[in-house]
Amino acid sequence: MNDRPMKADATTPSLRGGKGVGVLYLIPCTLGDTPVEQVLPAYNMEIVRGLRHFIVEEIRTARRFLRRLDREFPIDDSTFYEMGKHADEARFASYLRPIAEGHDVGVISEAGCPAVADPGADIVAIAQRKCIRVVPLVGPNSMILAVMASGLNGQSFAFNGYLPIDEGERARRLQVLEKRAQHERQTQLFIETPYRNHRLFETLVRTLGPKTRLCVAAGLTTPDEWVQTHTVSEWRKLGLPDLAKTPSIFLFL
Question: What domains appear along the chain, each with residue ranges and CATH number?
């Protein structure tokens, strides 16, 4: 395949990316052990059933997700391209070759929506440079769901990914984000590896001002879903339940 960007022109069809050219579909998956019909529209399943090429974070979990969507899905007739932990532009670009050959390709994340706090973003960036049509499908996104349920400002918010692991650096970063939240009235969001949730919570209630409102949104869309917003001074009295195994979003304003 010639890796030079494909030139788009006025004759390029808008629905399928071009005659004989496939589409890159971004396929959301569940955030936990949630019934797929509870969080994913039937349209997604129709699209997925027609795909035989998938770019995934981890092949085993992607295969399991496809089986959950459709027990009869032809796994053995499908090709999986694993992204791994490190971006490799040349390798990622090769994963898009089936699109130039007329095949649609799907990107599947480990949880939630691909390309949002996810290595799928590198795949999408390459596809955009090559003028490949990218179609994001509807599905659960923990950040948006957390903002919706928090009671904090949903008109201006920022996702900051992971905070520094070093305790001192983390505290300094939180102080910067708190000043931004106060100055711009902007809700600040971030995540942590589940087993570090409690340590992060302790840093939050020790570092943030007593009147700052802090929301913890855990296990979203799952049977263990838990979302509460309190001031930091209230959290100091309440404490945090055990969330060491539960994916969580932290927000404050």
Answer: 24-136 (3.40.1010.10), 142-252 (3.30.950.10)
